[in-house]
Amino acid sequence: MNKIMEKKKSKKKKLVLHSIGNLEKFNYNYYIFDKKQKVIEKLAKILIMDLNIEIDLYEKYKDKKGKWESRKINFKKVKDEHYGLQGYSVDIRCDLFFGDKKIFVTLNCSNEDRLKFNEILFKSFDMPKSKSSKNVKKTKKNKILGPFKHNKNFLKKSKTKKQI
After folding, report:
1. Does a structural domain hold residue 146?
2. What is this structure's pTM?
3. Euclidean distance between the first and final Cα of the chain, in Å?
4. For 72-119, what is each residue's pLDDT tens digit?
């Protein structure tokens, strides 16, 4: 019975993490996610469990009678906003930037905390393989041009600008 449950859990579709990077000099990582409600909810669980950073998933409002109520925030509608989150420790900070279709997240903390966070993150999120690697062109000297079109004149111009 347990094996059947494990197979069902493993077949469960993971959420998508589009990009990850870091800047060691300033002790932060950045992540780019799809802007979906499930992504925010999963990220909120990971942040509170791992780094003691809390994302408010509910907003308070007054109903018609003037009574305070709360409702779940629809993050699909949140656009061009920044949520700055501070952990219980002064050394940990998380920033969420909401765009039209993506969420850009920065995590500023120690290297150990970032590695621990990444380990937990990759249990719930998958990174798609880069599609642009198919279109990468190389010159005769194995210089990568990228997924865009260049002609030989571009290479000559770029060399002459560097020499000047």
Report:
1. no
2. 0.66
3. 72
4. 989 999 999 999 988 777 788 899 999 999 999 999 888 888 888 889
Alpha helix stretches (DSSP H) within 52-148: 111-124
Q: What are residue 32's phi and psi, to 5 degrees?
A: -125, 125
Q: What is the predicted pLDDT for the residue at 149? A: 45
User: Do 77 and 37 touch, CB atoms closer than 8 A?
Assistant: no
Lowest mean pLDDT among 31-40, 115-124, 128-137: 128-137
Residue 83 burial by CB count (10 A; 0-12/13-18/19+): exposed, middle or buried? middle
What is the rounded distance in angstroms from the CA atom of residue 108 to the CA atom of residue 68?
Answer: 34
Of 111, 104, 109, give the one whose Cα is nearest residue 93.
109
Residue 79 covered by a domain: yes
Establish if 141 belongs to a structural domain. no
Taking CB atoms within 8 Å and a gap of at least 24, the contacts of 12-19 are: 14/124, 14/125, 14/126, 15/39, 15/42, 15/124, 15/125, 15/126, 16/125, 16/126, 16/127, 16/128, 17/121, 17/122, 17/125, 17/126, 17/127, 18/102, 18/127, 18/128, 19/127
Structural domains of the chain, count: 1
Query: And the tokens for 59?
Result: 């907003």
Q: Is residue 85 part of a domain?
A: yes
Could you list the residue range(s) of the whole structural domain that residue 123 is in? Answer: 2-128
